[in-house]
Every structure is written in C-alpha cells, then in structure tokens.
Write a structure and sequence with these properties.
CATH architecture of the largest domain: 7 Propeller
Shape: globular
Number of helices: 7
Helix content: under 10%
CATH class of the largest domain: Mainly Beta
Oligomer: single chain
Length: 754
C-alpha cells in the first residue's frame, strides 16, 4: 500500500516559534505531511525463531580479555604527564551511582564502542558494536537456563544468523547485474557486517528489543569500493530486529526484518553519469546509492518505532544528506510472534523556526515511552539536525486505528543560543555541529527529556565537546526553550575536564534524571561520569565519576576520528521505576575502548535463581533414596536472606507445589553475586508410579523480601526432556517384612494363622 503525498513547500509561510503544523487532508481523505513527505505500507518479514538452545551455541572467540587494570578507587585522579596529544579529544560516556549511594559500577569487560544498555525486570543487556552480553543486576554474566554455565557473548551474526532469514533477505536485494553474486549477499561470511547494534527494554510488554542494520556483502569494504566505485550502487539497507519471547532474554527471540530505506532496492540501475544524483526509481522513493545509517529505537503504548537517516552515496564517495525515515510496527503483534504489516514515513524534513524557506533533514529519533507516565496513544519523534540548533518534535498517532495511515504533526521549538566562557583553548558561544549526538530521548509525565552533545566549531585546537539538556512539554505550543548547560566546566562539571560527549539519559517515575557521558581533559584519560538531577531541585547535582580512563586510546577509529564510539546508554529500571542504569565507554588499560555499567538512584534488591539441579542417579526405583545437588545464585544487587530449597518430581516441565515433594534443605543467606551448590537428600515416595519425570526446585526466602523477579525462583524446564526415570518399588516387600518383625509375637501368630 502506498499513498503519495503532494509537496507544499511553496505554500508554507513563516512559522511562529513552537507552532504545531498539522497534516493536511487531501481530496481522497489521505494525509499530507509538510513539506512533501510520503507514507507507505511496511512489509514486516518473519517471524523466525531463535530458541533457548540456539542462543548458546559454542562460545565466541574472545575479543574481550579483562582489562589488565581493573577498577580505580573513587575520587582517584589518573593523570598523564606528559599527556598524549589526542587525550583531550577522545570523549565518550560511562556509568552509575548517585548522591544516595547505590551500586558500584561494574566493568563489563566488553571491548569496543557504541555502548548501549537495556534494563529488564531481572536482566541487563549490555551491547557494544556487534556484541551483546547478558548480565544479572549483580554485574555478573547470567547463568544459562540450559546448563547453568555463564551465558556466552551473543554476536549479531549469531542472533540474526537464521538461515531462512538471511536467504529471504538475499532474495530481496535486487542487485545490479554485475554485482548479483554471493560476494554481495548478506550471508557472505567474509564480508558480513552488522552495524549500529541497539537494545531497548519495553516495559509495556515486558520484552527486550534488539535491532541492527545489516549490510550486504562487500558494499562497505573499502578495498572493494576503491577497485570498483560502482559497488556503492549495490548497497542495500535492511533492519533486523529481535524481540524476546518473555521478560527473560535467555528464553529466545522472535526475529524479523524490513527495508530501511524507502522501497529499498526498487531499481538496480547504475547511472551513466556518476557525478550527479541518480534519479528516483519509477513510482518509488528509492534512488540507487541510498543507504541508512545511525538507527534509533523507541517504544510507545502500541508501537515499536525505528528512526534513521538516509543518505545517498554517489560513486564519487560523497555522502549527501537526503531525508529522515521512520518505520512503525505493531509492537503487540511482533512480541507475540506475528509479522503484522506496519508503516514507513519518509522524506521527513522540516522547516526550522523563523526560516520558512529552509528545509532540514537529519536524524529522526523516536522517544522512549514508559508505561508509568506514558503519553497515551501517540508516539513522539525528535528530529535533530547536525549543522544548527534546529529541532523538530513530531507527534505520530493513528486516529483511525493502526490499519489506517498515521496522522503526523510537528512543532519546531527554537533552542536559545548558549554562550559561555571557560579556560583556554575554548571560549565563546557553542552551537551544534557535525559532532553532535542525540540519543535516548525519554518521555515521562507530560515532558520530553533530551540530552545532546554540542561543539564549538573547530578553532585550530579541535572540537571541544559539551553536554546540554532540554526538557519541554509537547502540548505547550509556543515559547523559546533555553537548554541547561551540563558542562564542562561549570558548577556541575569541574575543571580540568574540557570535553564531555556522547550523553545518554533516562528519567524515573518521580521525574529524577541521570545524565551520563564521557569526559576527558589535557591531564586525564577518557573516562565516564554522570550528573544526577532530582525532580524537586532547581539544578543538577555535581558530576560523579564512574570510571577513570586508564590509558591513551590507540584504536585507529574511522577516518578523521580517534574514537570508535558514538553512543551512550541509559535505561530506567522497570522493577521499581526509580533506578536508572547507564553504560558508557572509557579508555581501557590496553588502549582500547571498554564499557562500564552501573545504577543510579533506587534501592538494592536480591534476585535468587535456580541455575541447575542434578541427581546422583537418573534411574531410580520408587522408595529409594539418593542425593541431588542444586545450584542457587543471587543475581541481584542486594543481599538475600536465608531460605529453603525444596525439590520436586513432576510429570510435566512446569514445577509447582502440587508436584511430588522428594527433598528439602536449608539455604544460607547469599550476598549479591554469590552462588552455592547445596546437597539435598532425596527420597522417592513408594507410591510413585513408574514413568519419566522432570526434577526441579523451588526457593523460598525467609521473611517478606522483594526480589527483582519471583518467577525465576523455580527451575525453568521449558523445552527440556524429562531427566529421571522412576521404576517400580523393588524394596517395598522387604520393608513390609521388616515392619512385621517389630510386631509382638501374638500379632505375628495371628497374622500367620490367616
């Protein structure tokens, strides 16, 4: 389905600051978007299933050796004398702990850039470029529900490597004839590339979402593009998405994919003149050379939203900013394993405030909504450009239901200039440049919250980065919005910090904010920190260091950059709606970027799980006795009191208290991160029917202690085969005879007489 919408650029008049521009109905009743956008039906391909067993596989090659220097004591200054020249130019964000002291940050061991984090009920997903780690809230790798061993790192290739998924993408590529071979397919192992891996937790449906752009074959390979510049016309942009089946990411995912440019690959022509923009394909929004980059994820009451920036890469190698694109899908359907169609909106551009004749493109970033304090049946999109202080807020709704085209309005709040003076080498007014970063905008209780990077234009000493914060009510249709400078340096971020960048924030139910970012200076290596901001305080608290930089970054990065990092991560905890988890990069002791994660605000809670149960023998007769060993771990950040472990036999994979009790034992108190293997004496009741059984345990803690997740206090056997075989009671007759021997002689005689 496609609705072509007419351009109304000529009819747009000067916009007052903050005025909402509504969609304009056409004669046929469809919607028109200023200034000349279009909407089409999005085909969602799938589902493809990734099972619990397939999540494990073989351990991945270790790219992630632990840092040779571990944590640095709080408030310790790490200096470099003399400081390497690039140290002050390697900014990137890090993680958690606030004025009310909370968890110590934990070093993930992950090596590389693009840190992201998603906090679920009891699990954390921490991502870097191309790799995901499964953590408990104690900072340790979660145990597998299959074998109890630590979950291995999950690569994008493993997560999205379903053979049918990749075959279906290959069939859709429509490559130019000279590139229509396996070297340019997505399953080419030599050139397979996933870029911009993202994670998000959806507290409306209690699901994790993981998404990545997949690039086909050799189209991003520099040597291939140099050898034949026409390779650029063979690039295709697909978005692969996984949604967890439950709130526990270890239980598998439903996988999907869709186009990530408008009508991706609609035609495969290579233009005769490679120096100009190729024409659009017939009846399409696609032109050869279009490619998506830097995706963003958001979620609302009914939709999962992905926004991105589409640019055209001509054979000359020049990227031309083209348009913003948004894909909107039915989150409820995908979370339940159904590939319902969605919508894509493209040619997203806007008219900046007071510039009626100036059309802007740029990144379109969906706002992350939260169930507690959500905006209702709408989704918000922040449209940010990387050349000026221009911002548009889009409101996306489906008044006719999701089966009808969406309604879209926008407003362009003007961001007031912010001037400051600081120590050399930077002073003067700051403005957003191509170094700006906006990620993780959030919505709570009537406000949209943004943190973004700003940069003074290069002055011979390089770009000096800072962080700014913006909060506004999307229903307030007028006004100029002055951002709060978070730093550096000011009362919130003190000298010697000269750079702060790649911020990420989230907001809890009370309205408290945690804004994390990376810092560096001429005398310190790139580290991470944050500022906490309480809802009832006029200004944020002082900057808190999470992890000091340990060395000079030596990663080569991309052309013109020292860094391989362009994101930070923040995620409100859905358990208490108070805690906020952060993940950011810091300079590791080996000269590579590392990721640290931690928690701000909130209290600590335990999370006791059964990570395994084993019998001494798996063929037993009714009435016999043996021993079982049960592995119990506390994966929460709080301590767990003592309790009790009870073992059961069950005819099905669901262990419950109505199953056959075969043993019980006391459980000691478990501090955060502690695990124990305890022996449980087992006796099979004599009246147990011969059959195959499951064996599982239930943990009960003493007192009324809240845990992150009570459902994992029971052995999870979903998808498992029965573990133990029970045979007839072989000792029952001798046991009856022994009982008779204890009777007195008269009773024994009477018994024999009969």
């Amino acid at each position: 389905m496609r609705i072509r919408l007419d351009a109304r650029i000529a009819g747009i008049v000067a916009l007052a600051i903050g005025v909402i521009v509504p969609a304009t109905p056409l004669a046929d009743g469809s919607a028109s978007f200023p200034p000349g956008w279009a909407v089409g039906g999005l085909v969602v391909h799938g589902p493809y299933e990734l099972t619990t067993d397939e999540l494990l596989g073989a351990p991945f090659p270790s790219l992630d050796a632990p840092d040779e220097i571990t944590a640095v004591a709080a408030n310790t200054t790490v200096s470099c004398a003399p400081c390497p020249a690039q140290a002050s130019k390697t900014s990137i964000g890090v993680t958690p702990a606030p004025p009310p002291p909370t968890d110590q940050p934990f070093l993930t061991g992950l090596q590389g850039g693009d840190p992201m984090i998603a906090a679920g009920k009891a699990a954390l997903l921490v991502a870097r470029r191309g790799t995901i780690a499964f953590y408990g809230k104690d900072g340790n790798a979660l145990p597998s529900i299959v074998d109890g061993l630590p979950m291995p790192l999950l690569s994008s290739g493993k997560l999205f490597g379903h053979p049918q998924l990749q075959a279906d993408i290959n069939a859709s590529l429509n490559l130019p004839a000279k590139f229509n071979n396996r070297a340019f397919y997505v399953d080419n192992a030599s050139y397979q590339e996933y870029i911009d891996l993202r994670v998000l937790y959806d507290d409306y449906r209690n699901r994790f979402w993981i998404a990545s752009e997949i690039v086909n074959g050799k189209t991003r390979d520099q040597a291939s593009r140099i050898a034949d510049p026409d390779v650029r016309y063979a690039r295709r942009s697909k978005m692969v998405v996984g949604v967890s089946k439950t709130s526990d990411p270890r239980k598998g995912f439903w996988l999907y994919w869709w186009n990530n440019t408008a009508d991706d690959g609609a035609c495969a022509d290579i233009p005769a003149d490679r120096t100009v923009a190729p024409p659009l394909c017939a009846n399409s929004g696609y032109r050869p050379g279009d490619a998506a980059d830097y995706p963003h994820l958001g979620v609302s009451r009914h939709q999962f939203v992905e926004g991105t920036h589409v640019a055209t890469n001509f054979a000359s190698g020049t990227w031309h900013s083209t348009y913003g694109l948004v894909n909107v899908v039915d989150a409820d359907a995908l979370a339940s394993g159904h590939a319902n169609p969605g919508w894509f909106l493209y040619n997203l551009m806007f008219v900046p405030a007071n510039q009626a004749d100036y059309i802007k493109a740029g990144d379109v970033t969906p706002v992350v909504g939260h169930k507690d304090g959500d905006p209702g049946d709408v989704a918000y999109l922040v449209h940010f450009t990387n050349t000026t202080s221009d911002l548009a807020l889009w409101t996306l709704s489906f008044p006719g239901g999701f089966g009808s085209p969406p309604n879209l309005t926008y407003q362009t709040p003007a961001i007031a200039p912010w001037a400051w003076s600081r120590n050399a080498p930077q002073s003067g007014a700051l403005d957003i440049t191509e170094y700006s970063v906006l990620y993780n905008p959030a919505y709570r209780n009537g406000s949209v919250y943004l943190a973004f990077g700003v940069c003074e234009p290069p002055d011979g000493n390089g770009c000096k980065n800072a962080v700014r914060f913006l909060q506004f009510n999307p229903t307030a249709n007028s006004g100029t919005y002055t951002t709060i400078p978070i730093g550096p340096p000011n009362q919130f971020v003190a000298a010697p910090v000269l750079d702060a960048g790649f911020p990420a924030l989230d907001v809890n139910a009370a309205g408290d904010l945690a804004i994390g970012f990376v810092t560096s200076s001429p005398s310190t290596f790139a580290g991470a920190g944050y500022v906490p901001w309480y809802h009832n305080e006029f200004l944020p608290r002082a900057h808190v260091k999470l992890q000091h930089g340990l060395a000079s970054i030596t990663d080569p990065g991309e052309a013109g950059l020292t860094s391989k990092v362009d994101t930070g991560g923040a995620s409100a905890d859905p358990f208490d709606n108070e805690s906020i988890w952060l993940a950011h990069a810091y300079a590791g002791g080996d000269g590579s970027w590392r990721i640290v994660a931690g928690k701000v605000f909130g209290k600590k809670f335990p999370n006791v799980i059964i990570s395994g149960a084993a019998l001494a023998a798996y063929t037993l007769s009714a009435g016999s006795s043996t021993k079982a060993t049960v592995a119990v771990a506390n994966t929460g950040d709080g301590d767990a009191p003592a309790g009790r472990v009870t073992l059961f036999l069950s005819r099905d994979a669901t262990i419950g208290r109505d199953d056959t009790l075969i043993g019980t034992v006391d459980l000691p108190a478990l501090t955060s991160g502690r695990s124990v293997a305890i022996d449980v004496p087992v006796t099979i009741p004599t009246d147990t029917a011969p059959a195959a059984y499951y064996i599982g345990a239930i943990v009960d803690l003493a007192g009324d202690v809240p845990e992150y997740d009570m459902t994992d206090n029971v052995t999870d056997l979903e998808g498992r085969a029965p573990q133990v075989t029970i045979t007839e009671c072989r000792d029952c007759v001798p046991r009856h005879a022994a009982a008779l021997e204890r009777l007195d002689m008269r009773t024994l005689i009477r018994t024999r007489a009969h």
